[in-house]
Design a protein that fits this description.
Number of helices: 20
Structural class: alpha+beta
Helix content: 25-40%
Distance between the termini: 88 Å
Shape: elongated
Length: 720
């Protein structure tokens, strides 16, 4: 008579409930010894009265490799540990609610008992270790779990020992379609391991491009650029990391099959090998699509073979990083297992061969066939596909092109440019001359972050000038600023900084979104995007308070607006922040700073001690604002002179007028002075916001805050 030792010296008859064809019986389960010494006295109690929720046990198997069945490519190695868990009506549901998976509620007349087997799994010779729902490497650890519904009988709930044997009998491993069809109704089989799955067979990737002029202010006819394009990927997307595969046999006809992100983990979503990033198929790869759709360029666009391959790899890396960031932001919480792909399968519907083929593929890591069946709307219903949510996001990939309008051919621009990828997957491409000026050639994005931040602010002003002058020369360009911030776990202060941006842009009332600061869901996997788009009339207001008369802003007007904008981005939560606000908001103190340009505030009889204590921070604020005011005044005067020359020129093309050439050269010199200023070095988003404020808030604003698996869309139309 087969027996299982469940306590020291205590054995129970397993022949009553443990089926001979069950995996645990085949593996020769002999011992299931819990670490708790009090466990033995609970074995005879009804299972619904057991207070212990989980018990780690030392298991002993005669043939543990039989857990995988001889038909698979897996071998169980080393010690096999087990755990028994119990869920009752007081727990509510078997699993935490992820917002996508149908709840498995626990009724008053049932309990659920879980049996978990943890082991090291190794592939057989020349075989890849698949067959668990996840494609894994040659050797990996895996937790194999089965939860079974134990119903209350006429005589009440069964004893704990009988419930354990029944749960052991229903234990199974997700190996193939046959293992799903043979799975008992009212059970959930789970694989918890590290590996990869293929989820999507095709996708569309939105790309936004922001082009900027050089401070050298070229006025040649630029090559065309589309500000937004969509790239078509006809190959698979791969999800990698700590994954949980779950199959719930709802009843005799239905199962729910899905792959989940494991709680507390971060996954990677990428284009699978051969997904169109290879440089060997230039008519199909992503870079070729980008060049064609964004720049109307064909083939390799005149790039050398070496440079093309280099850019193709860089762009592929940027796409992968952007996909992972966007996907992470789509998950609701890191505290629970959450479905990435989930379907409901009617096992008695559709074509059995096609259904089994799709389930077999899924349990070997390829879930695309199930997605295809779901599209046909026969016997497979899609409950969630995270890749659809991820790849459909506007501006999934952001490309900033600095010094773009210096060139007349895309090949000339890209051949010698410096290309950097930030932590969010955004690409910044800088022309050779600008890269040398910034001294970022050969540097990583992290090393060049500060220089690029300043360059983006300077380039925006140059592009605004280019747009204003270019409108009179029939040069049509788009001008916009895009801000993106993402964090797996965003700090309260960082989130506050983003919310202050929202308030200052006028898309939400001050304080109306502060609830996000104290709600953990809004600080988990947060993606924050803000875009401001400007028309020509909006940009004129950057330099002139009366555009028609080209009357410039006064120094005091610019200074007051800059101080107000910077103060709006600071909250008085520390003494340092209070000191900065006090200096910015008090005209008397600010005037005193102006009298002490070297920052020697200690001797001042006007400044309070708080400002003196934090003199360094206050002085940095003063320098940034002062330099910005000087730059706007200098550029504005030169721009006005250039526009006046243009309007009075008799030449058919003003660019050939010697007077215009002189005015343009002077304007370029004034723009060049921006590179020597301190603007753009201090508070995040200040540069974008002060320019928005100066335009009279005329730009069109669009903001997305994505977290807690939901998105807040905020917007503000441009002022007339």
């Amino acid at each position: 008579m087969p027996e299982v030792e469940v306590a020291e010296g205590m054995k129970i008859d397993s022949s009553v409930g443990l089926r001979k064809d069950s995996p645990l019986a085949k593996a020769g389960l002999k011992k299931l010894l819990p670490a708790s010494a009090n466990f033995a006295q609970n074995l005879s109690l009804p299972v619904d009265l057991i207070q212990i929720r989980s018990l780690a046990t030392a298991a002993d198997f005669e043939s543990p490799d039989q857990l995988s069945d001889n038909s698979t490519s897996l071998i169980f190695k080393g010690d096999v540990n087990c755990e028994v868990s119990i869920r009752n009506h007081n727990d509510g549901c078997v699993f935490e609610d992820d917002g996508f998976s149908p709840k498995i509620e626990i009724g008053q007349d049932e309990v659920w008992v879980g049996v978990e087997v943890d082991s090291l799994i190794q592939a057989k010779v020349k075989a890849k270790a698949n067959g668990l729902g996840v494609s894994v490497g040659v050797q990996t650890g895996a937790d194999l779990i089965t939860y079974s519904r134990i119903a209350k009988g006429q005589n009440g709930f069964p004893k704990l020992q009988d419930a354990i044997i029944e749960a052991c009998s229903k234990f199974g491993v997700l190996l193939d379609a046959a293992s799903i069809r043979s799975q008992a109704p009212g059970t959930v089989r789970i694989t918890d391991t590290n590996g990869s799955v293929t989820i999507a067979a095709s996708a569309e990737l939105p790309v936004d491009l922001d082009a900027f002029a050089s401070l050298r202010l070229p006025l040649d006819t630029p090559f065309s650029i589309a500000p937004s394009v969509t790239l078509e990927v006809t190959a698979s997307l791969k999800l990698e990391g700590d994954l949980v595969v779950r199959c719930y046999r709802v009843d005799a006809d239905t199962c729910q099959l899905g792959v989940y992100r494991k709680r507390g983990s971060t996954l990677k979503l990428s284009l699978d090998a051969g997904a169109g990033v290879s440089a060997t198929a230039k008519d199909k790869d992503l870079l070729a699509q980008l060049l064609s759709k964004a720049f109307n360029a064909s083939g390799d666009s005149g790039l050398s073979s070496t440079r093309y391959k280099e850019l193709s790899k860089i762009f592929g890396d940027a796409v992968d990083r952007s996909l992972s960031i966007a996907m992470s932001a789509s998950f609701s919480s890191s505290d629970i297992h959450e479905a990435a792909f989930l379907v409901s399968v009617n096992l008695r519907g559709g074509e059995p061969f096609a259904t089994d083929q799709a389930m077999n593929a899924a349990l070997h890591g390829d879930w695309t066939l199930l997605a295809n069946l779901a599209e046909k709307k026969q016997n497979v219903t899609l409950l969630r596909d995270l890749t659809v949510e991820t790849t459909s996001k506007k501006g999934l990939i952001q490309i900033n092109l600095l010094g773009f309008y210096t060139f007349e051919q895309i090949s000339s621009y890209l051949q010698t440019s410096t290309v950097l990828i930030d932590e969010n997957g955004d690409l910044t491409i800088t022309d050779e001359a600008t890269a040398k000026d910034l001294k970022i050639v050969g540097k990583s994005y992290a090393e060049a972050r500060d220089q690029l931040s300043k360059a983006m602010m300077d380039s925006f002003i140059a592009t605004a000038v280019y747009k204003v002058i270019g409108s009179g020369l029939n040069l049509d360009i788009n001008v916009s600023q895009c801000y993106f911030d993402y964090a797996n776990s965003m700090s309260r202060n960082r989130m506050l900084s983003n919310l202050l941006l929202v308030y200052t842009l006028g898309t939400a009332q001050e304080g109306s979104l502060d609830y996000m600061l104290d709600d953990p869901r809004w600080l988990d996997h947060v993606a924050f995007t803000a875009t401001v788009t400007y028309k020509n009339a909006d940009l004129m207001a950057l330099f002139f308070k009366d555009s028609a008369l080209m009357t410039q802003w006064g120094t005091d007007e610019l200074m007051s607006l800059a101080r107000k904008t910077l103060a709006s981005l600071i909250r008085p939560e520390t003494n340092l922040e209070k000191a900065r606000i006090l200096a910015l908001q008090t005209p008397e103190y600010w005037a005193e700073l102006y009298e002490r340009p070297a920052g020697n505030y200690a001797a001042s009889e006007v400044l309070p001690s708080l400002i003196k204590q934090y003199a360094v921070a206050v002085h940095v604020d003063w320098m940034e604002i002062t330099d910005w005011v000087k730059a706007i005044l200098n550029v504005g005067k030169a721009l006005a002179d250039t526009l006046k020359v243009m309007s009075s020129s008799k030449a058919k093309d003003p660019r050939k007028d010697p007077n215009f050439k002189d005015a343009r050269k002077n304007l370029a010199n004034r723009l060049g002075s921006l590179a020597k200023s301190n603007t753009g070095t201090l508070t995040r988003t200040w540069g974008e916001l002060v320019q928005f404020a100066l335009s009279g808030q005329r730009g069109t604003v669009a903001i997305d805050i994505e977290a807690a698996s939901q998105t807040r869309h905020l917007g503000k139309a441009a002022k007339a």
